[in-house]
Amino acid sequence: MTSSPSSDPIQGGDRQATVLVVDDDPALQRMILDYFVDNNIRTLLAAGRQEMVDQLAAHEVDVVILDLRLGLEDGLDLLREIRSHCDVPVIIATGHRRDEIDRVVGLELGADDYVTKPFNLRELLARVRAVLRRLDRGRPAPPRDHERGGYQFSGWRLNLRTRRLTDPNGVQVVLTKGEYALLVAFLDAPQRPLSREHLLQATRVHEDVFDRSIDVQILRLRRKLEQDPSMPQFIQTERGVGYVFAPTVQRF
After folding, report:
1. Would the pLDDT of 201 be above 60?
2. Terminal C-alpha separation, the chain
3. Which of 44, 112, 221, 234 is most deeply packed, by most CB within 10 A?
């Protein structure tokens, strides 16, 4: 089920922003859909995994609102499935304020924000719009000559033109847009301590969403680069400052 199209898009170009709501509560689905339609956001609905997969396959979705309590299905498993295929922004919804562990796990798995039920529809809309603004700012500009080539470090290679990262064995490692931007920020300034504020700006993370969102992104990137993320050799913590990328980096 989708909302009727509106003539006033809020996304760049001539395409309206599209939000997919994954929730098994029909009343809540209808409330969100009606409110978002009134605020010029195209809304798709899914009650479970298969409907979610079908909607993502059939439509270009800008933001997913994902309930972590979906009857017999685990919302965290659905989040893992989304992240294994794409980097569409995800706002997770938890049912109780005490579900702190689920929120933390959701963020570590790649969620971009969270709301706690019962939530105010105006707040939910504000969070969706904040994600859409970050998405617009993070859209890649047309390739320029100085963006050709890339970086290499400790056998790893990052091609800036294709945004492809390969490990020392030549195996491709898939990065989300946030992870890519974070890695480029490190490779641009190797062996120099970088503050959280610098990294937040470099990755275009909106600072009013999570105070420690950069630490979550660091954790995700470490898991993809480090042999032992608990004892990082590449991205090291610089106490009182932020983080430093330790290896020697070369341009190619």
Report:
1. yes
2. 49
3. 112
In 3D, which of 105, 64, 68, 69 has the Cα closest to residue 86?
64
Phi first, then psi: give them for residue 139, nearest 5 degrees. Answer: -65, 130
Residues 6+ apart with CB under 8 A from 238: 193, 244
SS (H, E, C) 119-176: CCHHHHHHHHHHHHHHHHHHCCCCCCHHHCCEEEECCEEEECCCCEEECCCCCEECCC
Q: Report DSSP state, residue 42.
A: E
Q: Bridge-partner residues for 64, per DSSP?
A: 20, 90
The three-class DSSP label of residue 115 is: strand
- Coil, strand or helix at 211: coil
158, β-bridge pairs: 151, 165
Contacts made by residues 30-36, CB under 8 angstroms, sequence distance 24+: 31/121, 32/65, 32/121, 32/124, 33/1, 33/3, 35/121, 35/125, 36/3, 36/125, 36/128
Name the pTM for this structure.
0.55
Model confidence pLDDT, tens digit, residues 52-90: 999 998 998 999 999 988 888 888 999 988 988 777 899
Contact status, residue 23 vs residue 70, Cβ threshold 8 Å: yes
What is the β-pairing status of strands 172-173 and 164-166?
antiparallel
Tokens of 29: 């689905």
- pLDDT attached to residue 13: 44
Element (H, E) at 84: helix 75-85
* Contact assessment for residue 248 and residue 153, using Cβ atoms and an 8 Å cutoff: yes
Q: Which helix (H) or strand (E) holds 194?
A: strand 194-195
- The CA-atom distances, in angstroms, between 19 and each of 44, 135, 185 are 6, 13, 30
